[in-house]
Specification:
alpha/beta, Peroxisomal Thiolase, Chain A, domain 1, 10-stranded mixed beta sheet, two-stranded antiparallel sheet, 11 helices, 12 strands, 35% helix, globular
Length: 350
């Protein structure tokens, strides 16, 4: 799949704002982490990097839609009209039951919004696209519930739909609205968020990112092009990074790009020690062995961990940061999925 997918529209909302503001914030190394009014198990205030205020009334579907609507409209504006039906992939966090496993009873005491509202969010976004002149049939609306690497799965499914002639374009929406009281308290209870008693945890962030992609019709397709993507499932605990290694190798091979041309890696390192070890093992087996010496960009250093928004947000950042040459995007879901994609900037059409 050397021609890949051409990115025709990008939108994002983070703690810094839109794409250009986010890219500048990362470049400057500015952190927007604040202490909330919530008290964690260790007695300290729970810290987070939030794009929206933490308050009642802005939770569940209401919070998700408030976060994602502006970037969706921006991506549609950039993409322009479509000649046929479009697919919609809404990438969101995994269900808590899958996320926490045996710890579900421990977290059950935390208040949570009633019911699963992600399907309602997906359908509301399809309705929003309809008002923008984009038709998304019922059968082309997908919910991908696996966190960080969900966008990699969405890109693969979008390519399959294009090959089958079932869609003219696709919207890959990454959404992780961790600024809810219930979510922040669960993360703290489970020792996932960084605190005095969980120094290996991450700082919760929240973001929404939208990519509009279409089939790149030539090797010289203009703009940003995702030329290779692969996802694998890690089944080992502790991991030897076999799945991540396979994902990176597969993405580079599918892209047709020489690994030595990869100048930048954007990865979802968030302070978790096991995640860092996986990346070290996988990069040594792949990039180091193939002669690549890329610069690593870790958005979580300033944005916090943006979870399911990671894949589309990272691809969008490559455009906003004006990064030249080939780049590698790497994401790892806590549920086991590992993903990688090679992104290049094509020559503009005459």
């Amino acid at each position: 799949m050397a021609t890949g997918l051409r990115v025709t529209g990008i939108g994002m909302a983070t703690v810094f704002g839109v794409a250009e503001e986010t890219a500048q914030g990362i470049h400057d190394g500015r952190r927007r982490v604040v202490e909330t009014h919530l008290i964690g198990l260790g007695g300290q205030r729970i810290a987070a990097a939030l794009a929206l205020p933490l308050r009642s009334g802005l939770e569940g579907a209401a919070r998700a839609l408030a976060l994602v609507r502006p970037p969706l409209v921006e991506a549609v504006r950039q993409a322009g009209p479509a000649s046929g039906p479009a697919a919609l992939f809404v990438c969101v966090p995994p269900a808590w039951e899958a996320e926490i496993g045996a710890l579900r009873d421990f977290a059950a005491g935390v208040n949570t919004p009633a019911g699963d509202e992600w399907k309602a969010v997906r359908d509301a976004l399809a309705g929003e696209l309809a008002t923008q002149g984009v038709r998304v049939p019922e059968g082309l609306r997908f919910l991908v519930r696996c966190g960080h690497a969900a966008g990699m799965i969405a890109l693969s499914q979008a390519a399959a739909l294009f090959d089958a002639g079932q869609a003219d374009g696709a919207f890959v929406v990454g959404l992780d609205d961790q600024g809810e009281r219930s979510t922040l308290e669960r993360l703290d209870r489970l020792g996932l968020s960084k605190s005095v008693y969980a120094p290996n945890g991450f700082v919760p962030g929240e973001a929404a990112a939208v990519l509009c992609v279409r089939r790149a019709l030539s090797e010289n397709a203009g703009g940003l092009v995702v030329r290779g993507f692969r996802h694998e499932l890690e089944r080992e605990v502790p991991s030897r990074a076999l799945a991540l290694t396979e994902a990176i190798e597969g993405a580079i091979e599918a892209s047709g790009v020489d690994a030595s041309e990869i100048r930048t890696v954007v990865l979802d390192a968030n302070g978790d020690r096991e995640r860092a070890k996986e990346w070290t093992f996988a990069s040594m087996r792949t990039l180091s062995c193939l002669g690549a010496q890329p610069v690593a960009v870790r958005p979580a250093d300033v944005l916090g961990d943006v979870g399911a928004a990671s894949t589309p947000l990272f691809v969008g950042l490559l455009d906003a940061m004006r990064i030249e040459g080939a780049a590698l995007v790497v994401t790892s879901s806590r549920g086991g999925f590992r993903g990688a994609a090679v992104v290049t900037r094509g020559v503009a059409d005459p």
